[in-house]
Amino acid sequence: MKRETGDLEPLAPVPPSRNVEALRRLGLSAGLSALLVAVLAFLASSDPGSTLAGFFLSPFRARNAVPSMLEAAAPLAICALGALLAFKAGHFSLGGEGQLYAGAFMAAAAGAAVVPGPAGFLAAVLAGMAGGALVAAPAAAGKRWADADVLLTSFLVSQVALYTVDWAIGGPFRDTGNNLVAMPAIPAPSLLPRIMSPSTLTPAPLVALALAVGLWFFMSRTREGTMLSLYGRNPLFARLQGFPVGTLSWLPIVAGGAAHGLAGAFLALGSNGTAVRGMSGGLGWSAIGVTLIAGNEPLAVPFAALLFAWLDLGARQAAIISDLPPDAAMIVKALVIMAATARPLLRRLGGIMRGGRP
Amino acid sequence: MQLLACSGIHKRFPSTGTQALAGADFFLEKGEVHALVGENGAGKSTLARVVCGLLEPDAGTLSVDGRPVRFRSHRDAERSGIGLVPQHSMLAPGLTVAENLALGHEPRRGLAFFDGRRAVYEAAMLADRFGFSVPPDARVSDLGPSGRREAEILRAVARGSRVLVLDEPTSILSEEESSRLFALIRRLKDAGTGIVYISHRAREILELADRVTVLRDGRTLATVGARQLDECSLAELIIPTGACASEGGSRGSAAEPVLEFRGAMTAGGAGLDLTVRSGEIVGVAALEGNSLDELEDLAAGVTVPGARQLFLRGRELHGDGRDAAARREVAYLPTDREGRGLSARSPARDNLLASRLRGYSPRAYAGRKRPREDAAGLAAAFGIRGDLSRPADALSGGNRQRLVAARELDGRPGLVIAANPAQGLDPAARASVFRRLLELREQGSAVLLLSQDPLDLAELADRSFILYRGRLSPIPPEGLQEGRLSSLLTGAFA
Question: How buried is residue B139: exposed, middle or buried, by Cβ count under 10 Å (0-12/13-18/19+)?
């Protein structure tokens, strides 16, 4: 790659591109995950051999395991892309969980109400996105009009949304004929099509991939993406440059909410076929971890989501065939996120120790 | 007798890939003021940090009193009698001057109690010996910039420093405060202290220094006796441009009002009335604490003006998002270059092109060829060195300054707000920025020049004002002549 310099600086090394750096970081995270799984297997299992085989091999051996992994990674990646957009604009939004759940609820309601078929599908998708955006809206408005702390407001509103949707699914919107606490089923013609029978794989992973490419293009190849990124790192600078800071202060939060809503809609329109109580299952939180592991680079997000999906599936498989606790995946994920977020700190400390500039 | 000698010093920063020093040499005699000069990024500060033990060199030797030394920390350097007076104060603001002096070497009463009275006495004795005027019992947070600088020097002297490294000591001092500091430096020099003096200001280097070492690209280019130099030849040594400082253009005739303050209120006092017209440079000078920063904030749109107090081409400015379109014709060189002039963690290229993003079609921007060419062209025109695809904060301080100037002074802005435009720039960069401001004036831009240095006004402004205790007063042309500047800033013309 040709370096763009203002003058000759022959001794400066060519830095790797941000995407290459993100993928390298992701590779390290995957390696670290494998190492941690091995350590856990030896510490917590009486039969480490079968635990390791369960963890590493079963997700690829079991029938439909790979499609399942892709299916699980899709909503995670979509949520992470939404979170990433808000992060890039400097808004640390923690409302993903509630936005996702509200999206699923709205999608299930619209999908069941509108004529089955493409119209029903489209209505469900749009309603899902609107649901997510609606839950994000108070934090966005608070930021826009009162410079409120997005971290706090998004989290609080999300909690309200979680309890409200819980109540709605278990109360007035409950399908009383169903054993699950769930809403009425969305008619089959309105659901996401299955593209690899007999697995439940839908086109959702392709949508996630397209969104990742789209977000990468937006951030690195459009004027608006550049403005958003400059704003995210210094809002005062952006204002003095005449950027539309009013819009930048709220739109990325709402758009991030809509992405979470879309992920919720895909959950409802996928194998669930409706909105089920508790279906968000921490996906909104995991998405933040995926964003961090992906180093805030859109193209790395699908791979980071796959890593998380593999950890979940591997832990489940290992728990079935050995005595590894099913929560092992949680522990590994937490440690990997910690390592990913602590790395810049460690690098900086290392630099200072070597006598370089902090 | 050589107090300090540096020979073949090399230093590379692996994290940024910058070779900051690549064979720097100089030696310092007893009782000598030795100036280190060079353009931004030449390696002056790095060499100073090596000398003071804040950085370990990769290669080369340091000797004190003819004996090779190796400093692993600043404390090692202090033990060898080398003291640093940093550009930005590192004193504990909540303590008194005497307490700061005693930190780490506290006089004790009994076994454990700090003997404050003795600390003040010792500080007073030392201050008296060298003629320091800073009161030892004053709290540092209550001192002005000049007092803090004196306290920093006093602290170094109290540590037994025989070599003092002064990094840009006058950068925040007024003319009068600088003169006091120079007198103090001369007394220290007479007492045998060796002074390493880092500065961009040619005039004070020529006034103070015995010898001048010129650094370029981390290497020593030459060491010259200061008496052999004048301002022009010194600037030429730092960067050979074939021309000395900017000549100062003809004063253009004023025309359409571009920026108008109509009774604009600052915390400092009465409402300000000021009009800047196209094709003229209006200068406002003030010392710190006289609301110059407030005037800058108002003009730049950082703070909200009162109703109907600020106008751009006759349209009222509100200090919020409603001004976004109007702001696009305003170029702003802020005093706070880092906080207002850069999104420092974003790529340098994005920072460089921020003001012209809207000028690209979506297709041209996505293609990246034109933006890259434009950024490289701007960087070359303003001498910005470094990888533009890396974050702006990976560039050296001087290159960041140039980046802001390059972006803001490119094109033909209707209004330029230049706040302390020469701050932190080497003489060549300063001359280049001043030349560009004069060109913009000739092309019809209105320029509001705000500066704590009246010499900037003398060089550039068509009309000049002094801001003293919140009031604007015009300065008669003779007021900008040398010798009258100090009285001017302290209100003699107000």
Answer: middle
pLDDT per position as a tens digit, A236-261: 999 888 888 989 999 999 999 999 99
Q: Within 13 Å of residue A324, how many CA atoms lie on the same side as its CB? A: 35
CB contact under 8 A, B343 and A238: yes
- Res B227: pLDDT: 79
Q: Which residues of B touch A351 (CB under 8 A)?
A: 15
Tally C-beta pairs within 8 A across A and B.
133
Cβ-defined contact of A239 to B301 (cutoff 8 Å): yes
pLDDT at A8: 34
**Cβ-contact B115, B169 below 8 angstroms:** no
Distance CA B371, CA A221 (A): 11
Other CB atoms closer than 10 Å to residue B93's CB: what's the count? 12
Give helix B369-381 / helix B397-409 axis angle, nearest 10°. Answer: 110
Q: Is B361 exposed, middle or buried (0-12, 13-18, 19+ CB in 10 A)?
A: exposed
Residue A291's nearest CA partner among A1, A20, A78, A45 is A78
| Contact of B199 with B45, CB cutoff 8 Å | no
Query: How does pLDDT run across B462-480, given as a tens digit for each residue?
Result: 888 888 777 787 776 666 6
Strand partners, B108: B114
> Does the pLDDT of residue A163 top 90, yes or no?
yes
* Extended strands (E) in B162-280: 163-167, 194-198, 211-216, 219-225, 257-266, 269-277
Residues 6+ apart with CB under 8 A from A166: A277, A278
- B322: chain A residues, CB-CB within 8 Å: none
**Which residues of chain B are within 8 Å of residue A246 when distances are taken between CB atoms?**
321
- Phi first, then psi: give them for residue B111, nearest 5 degrees: -85, -35
Bridge partners (DSSP) of residue B347 are B391
The reply to whether the predicted model has a pTM over 0.80 is no
**3-state secondary structure at position B315:** strand
Q: Do A230 and B351 touch (CB under 8 A)?
A: yes
Q: Say if residues B297 and B450 touch (Cβ distance below 8 Å).
A: no
pLDDT at B307 over 60: yes
Rounded Cα gap, residues B58 and B25, in angstroms: 14
Alpha carbon of B28: minimum distance to chain A alpha carbons (Å): 25
User: Is B342 in contact with A238 (Cβ distance < 8 A)?
Assistant: no
Region of residue B356 (left: phi > 0; alpha: psi -120 to 50; beta: else):
alpha
Q: How far apart are the CA of B188 and the nearest CA of chain A, in angstroms? A: 32
Q: How far is residue A193's CA from residue A200's CA, in Å, rounded to a whole number?
A: 9
* ipTM of the shown complex: 0.80
Mutate to test the interface with A, among B39, B389, B407 (most CBs of A within 10 A): B389
- Give the H/E segment covering residue B21: strand B18-29
